[in-house]
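Morning!

This is the sequence you dropped in the shared folder:
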Amino acid sequence: NTFFPATGYFQCAGCSTPLYSVAAKMRGGCGWPAFSKCFTLARAAPVPQLASVVGQVDWVSGGREILCRNCGGHLGHVFMDGAFLGGDTPERHCVNSLSLAWVDKDPPSMLEETTCDLRTFHKQLMDHSSDGTYDGVVDRCNGA
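The structure's back. Tokens below.
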């Protein structure tokens, strides 16, 4: 993907939730838009900030599928080679361009950036690995 705007942000095409800043966009080498981190959801304090992107086990490919936290729409996959490819986190979100819309204005001010919420992925992996029902997923992450 060669679209690197100087301003704006990327939102979910399904529900318009802000997902990624233009600063988080990276050259991922996957042919799809790639990002190193995502926004948190716009929530007022003291509610904990949650990542706008969540990961779960992709039972077909054995990887990490990423979804919009707000609407559950499929975004793509996250790989843990982001720092190797020039990102500022271990994550590389390869996002299907049809699931994104670019907005040419500043994102809402209360948004922060964070890595993908992989708690569901890790729980699914532990649950199914422990009972032997699925052994095709390998967690190469440090458990975070």
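Headline: The first helix runs from residue 119 to 131.

More detail when I'm at my desk.
O.
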